[in-house]
Amino acid sequence: MPRVCKAVIKAKGGYFEESKIYLDLILLGGCYVISYVLFHSFDVFTISVQCVYSDNYGPNLAHCNTTVWNPLGNGLSYEEFDFPVFSLKEDNETEFIKQCYLDHNRAVNGSDPQYPLCAMQLFSHMHAVTNTPTCMRRNDINFSINPEMVCDPLGDYNVWGSIRPYNDTVFGHKENESVVIAAARLDSRAFFWEVSTGAEGSISGFVTLLAAAQALREVTHKAPPTRNILFAFFQGETFDYIGSSRMVYDMENGKFVIDLDNVHSILEIGQVALHSGTNLFLHSDPVSRRNNTVNDENLVNNLQSSTTGLSFLLVEPNVSQPLPPSSLQRFLRAQPIPGIVLADHESAFNNRYYESFYDNAANLNLTYPSDFSPEEQLEFVTETAKSLTDVATVVARALYKQAEGDKSLVNTIKADPKIVTQMLYGFLVSSNNSWFQAVMAPELKNILSDAPEYYVGVAMSSTPTRLVQYLLANLTGAATNLTQSQCQKPDELPNESRQMYSYLWVQGVVPPNSTQRDSFCVRASVRLTKAVSPAFELGEYASKDYSTWTESRWKFIKARIFLVASRDLEMLTLGAGVAVLFTSLLVTYFISTKADVLFSSTREPASAAY
């Protein structure tokens, strides 16, 4: 028996107001869906592809001439549909629609269905039209005191932190400062934004990087490396590298704590959870490697030598090919920098559901014993968690070597599988768990629910951004003895500085035999910086250098279901209505012409007395 698809009564984007369809349930991929309601792209956009390869840079690699990274993809998210596309998440909603179809629209014994038929009307009015330059220009047209915006740029915040703090009021180049950047992307996408989970596409990468950052905390305090290590989590990378392009732009224009000349090398963590066999792959840029000033070999050697005692190897692809989609490309567009993208695929993605709502916990084989409670599932170390723990260990060791740390301590660096499994559970199953509750601020506890949405959106500071910010602070920072008021105003204390650190008051755990949490203040060198495309700051809405994605504003999205009479009955009703109309007009005309007779009143004599 085919299952009924689950989805949401929402649609984002498009240039339509409403649509009425007769229900015609069809079978598509094992799911019942409503005929004509298949999929819909939800953003108003102008595509500006941000690939580093062009006619001027690696022309033989430009225009996707060599490697097809996602051969199973079909570009459906980039198609324009001229009708509303709704999905339904609740079983009772899909069952109600299905039952209405079965009761009224299903043919019996090969005959046509009998009226009345079940129909739906879909309302999804979007304000924006055409493309980003058009809608942004309309935003600037003010005809009223309270002008109505029609679209908004996609954007959020990047999360970054470093093992040695930087003064966040001093921007630009740092003399004698060399920095190794470890990066991962935070966002994902799917056809419907509320189910953009990105388990392999993004979560496997940033969970690995968070675990590596935690593994480095103790050793970097004990023996600080010569170079600094900066952990960067970019938002909006799915939409032409919004986060990384903004960080590069800020570095180029003296608006970040370091500049590009301070960047020694970059290690980016891509899709790493679905490696088959015993190898992970080290992708580098073949064009920049021909530059004598760029030396990727040292980073490659540090990575390959960090697998001691682990069950896999790190190898380079056998053929010369471009970089896979990655934030590193955005840095290379600005300046040749040694860099590696760590991934579980040599060429085409192992991920069959890249940027699909099927890229979820099941795609990572993240399963738990059926009789486990949520708290037991949170603590259960899955095979996926063990695998990512090993990858995080390699990443942490390689970063410490690349930063010229104490080589005798490298093999003591190990990621914690318990932390990895808790993060996987929190990001993919339920963020409303005891560990996430303990590391979050009291005022942010309401954002914890089921698995978050990883679409970047337009509402700055999304749930994934906040979760990663607080997790990175707790995993790399230090608990202090500051009170809540001191944590909010640390500059009033002699040895504390908000310019050097961020101070976060977190809920803490609930001790045994207690109902009150042990809240405390975390001091960490973790910051948020804007992840909004420079195109909107520059007013270049048709830019070919920066992302120009925007999202339409929309009115309330709704649908209604009702019964429709037969065409004959509709025509009969119309005819009767027309007849009544003409009859009423004739009666009105007759009454109007005879009004002096029909409505005359007899006057009494003026001299009448009573």
From TrEMBL:
Is Manganese among the key words of this record?
no
TM segment ranges: 21-39, 571-591
Give the chief site where it resides: membrane
Q: List this protein's GO terms for biological process.
A: Notch receptor processing; Notch signaling pathway; protein processing
Q: Which domain of life is it from?
A: Eukaryota
Q: Which Pfam families match?
A: Ncstrn_small, Nicastrin
User: InterPro entries this protein is in?
Assistant: Ncstrn_small, Nicastrin
Q: How does it sit in the membrane?
A: Single-pass type I membrane protein
Which interval of the chain is the signal sequence?
A: none
Keyword Membrane carried by entry:
yes
Membership in a protein family:
Belongs to the nicastrin family.
Protein name, UniProt field: Nicastrin
